[in-house]
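Readers of this paper often ask what the protein records in our data store actually look like. Nothing more is needed to write down the fold, since each code stands for a local backbone conformation. Below, we set out a record of this kind in full and without editing:
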Amino acid sequence: MHPFIYLASQSPRRQELLTQIGVKFELLLADSSEDAESLEIQLPNEPALAYVMRVTLTKLMAAKQRLHVRGLHSVPILCADTTVVLTLEDQNESEQNNQNKSNKEIILGKPTDHQDAIRILQLLSGKTHQVHTAVAVAGKPHINDDEPRLLVSSSQVTFKSLSNEEINAYILTNEPMGKAGAYGIQGIGGCLIKEISGSFSGIMGLPLYETSQLMHETGVQFSLKP
């Protein structure tokens, strides 16, 4: 069993969740020489699920290169990415009786400012959206296996109908900033959520069931040893 991993994420929630299951980690973060934000650009017509998987693996490859450039000891690296996606029905009104219908995915990232947070929360109000979190690990040092392993957790989240006053009050807490979908389920944002189906920890940003599977497969120590 390996005593620790590198975590290539600055998310405090992912750090808390790893600590919760007894995984020791050291941060392996990008510096100013890397354009980390460019890794999260969505490709044209890219489905949300394909997007979150591609971005997570791309982040993992960048972290592996970072480890090599910095001359660090080779231990497993964990990356994750969370995508909030709202699926809307797109109707072609030129067709008789609106029979020609398709679904349109809107990926809701981190708000750029308070006004953008208002826009995102208004979109989510009274609707059910999906949260996809992909987690990937590279490195199985004890058998020289560096093949990336990736698992995805997908959940459904239903918001209650939000008044403008509720949205503005929530934004004033500053909690929406820096969070995909402009909310944090583990914080005050939990008051906005009517129902979830899936993984609470996955919605937070690191699905513990999938992560523990990867830790076991990679030979990393954690609290629950199968």
